């Protein structure tokens, strides 16, 4: 198996009917970087910047952040890297930061909420990102966006930092793509407004599923009651892909779902052309997608999603379909 996956490493991920799919990888520390070449991932679809903060004994300085981001961009060479701004707070407590006790940390003061309320930290991170990407493209996205106003505020902060760097004569990125993670269900009902604003979207299916089903993602007792390959989730994902296409904005998915071959197959069928995976999943997912006929898949899946929920066992149908491919 491993040898088979290695043989696919440099092969583009194109389905049988010609759909080109970018299989990128998730990363967060320099030790992850060699996986890009090893797996043939076409970029980093999610760089979790909080990792550097979580492994450090003290708050990383702007120069430490800048050095890491530069290393990441250098090692990716020309391949795209999407940096996610700090997703800390809630249960991701940093030993050197004052801990705020919360009843429901997953729903609490975390990620972009903390970033906008205490903008010093977010601004210095954005500054490090902009400087690291001087002369090249920067892709940055914000976690846990729940309202379009939050996205506007976060984007404004990037503009402020750009102005600041320009005034001080620093080399600026060639282009800055600013995106949002879609992981809070409130965004599902303001997709048009969101898509008008963003340069790209990336679905965080781990959190999106946790909040859609109100089931703690880390608690197997409740998390395993819900299947990502269920009509409510797949309908939501289809809606996102369709609306993104209508607005001409790229959409990716970077949650665990894309690392499951069957999940990735469903995503390709629904129209997702970029996914970001756990490095070890790139080979198995590519092997399945190379054998997939997206059009046949949508002829199978879309009618099922239009049926009353529960009338068709979706996972079983997808398994059958994958077997037959
Ligand atoms: C997600 O929520 O799906 C995601 C990719 O981000 P994280 O797992 O870091 O919350
Ligand atoms: Mg998340």
From TrEMBL:
Superkingdom classification of source: Bacteria
Subcellular locations according to the entry: Cytoplasm
UniProt family annotation: Belongs to the PEP-utilizing enzyme family.
UniProt name for this protein: phosphoenolpyruvate--protein phosphotransferase
Source species taxonomy: Bacteria, Pseudomonadati, Pseudomonadota, Alphaproteobacteria, Hyphomicrobiales
Gene for this chain: ptsP
């Amino acid at each position: 198996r491993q040898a088979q996956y290695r043989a696919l490493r440099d092969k583009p991920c194109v389905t049988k009917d010609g759909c080109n799919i970018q299989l990128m990888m998730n990363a967060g520390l320099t030790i992850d970087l060699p996986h890009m070449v090893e797996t043939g991932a076409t970029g980093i679809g999610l760089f979790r910047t909080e990792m550097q903060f979580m492994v450090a004994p003290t708050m990383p300085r702007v120069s430490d952040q800048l050095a890491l981001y530069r290393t990441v961009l250098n090692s990716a060479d020309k391949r795209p890297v999407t940096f996610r701004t700090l997703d800390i707070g809630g249960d991701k407590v940093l030993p050197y930061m004052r801990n705020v006790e919360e009843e429901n940390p997953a729903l609490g003061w975390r990620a972009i909420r903390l970033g906008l309320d205490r903008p010093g930290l977010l601004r210095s991170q954005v500054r490090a990102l902009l400087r690291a990407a001087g002369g090249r493209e920067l892709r940055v996205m914000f976690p846990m966006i729940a309202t379009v106003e939050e996205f506007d505020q976060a984007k404004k902060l990037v503009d402020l930092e750009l102005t600041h760097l320009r005034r001080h004569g620093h080399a600026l990125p060639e282009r800055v793509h600013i995106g949002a993670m879609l992981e809070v269900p409130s965004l599902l009902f303001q997709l048009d407004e969101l898509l008008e604003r963003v340069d790209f979207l990336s679905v965080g299916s781990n959190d999106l599923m946790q909040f859609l089903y109100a089931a703690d993602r880390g608690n197997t007792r409740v998390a395993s009651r819900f299947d990502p390959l269920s009509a409510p989730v797949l309908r939501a994902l289809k809606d996102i892909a369709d609306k993104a296409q209508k607005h001409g904005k790229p959409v990716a998915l970077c949650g665990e779902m894309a690392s499951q071959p069957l999940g990735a197959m469903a995503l390709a069928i629904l129209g997702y052309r970029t996914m970001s995976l756990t490095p070890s999943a790139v080979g198995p997912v590519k092997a399945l997608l190379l054998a997939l006929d997206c059009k046949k898949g949508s002829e199978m899946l879309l009618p099922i999603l239009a049926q009353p929920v529960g009338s068709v066992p979706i996972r079983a149908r997808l398994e059958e379909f994958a077997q037959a491919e």
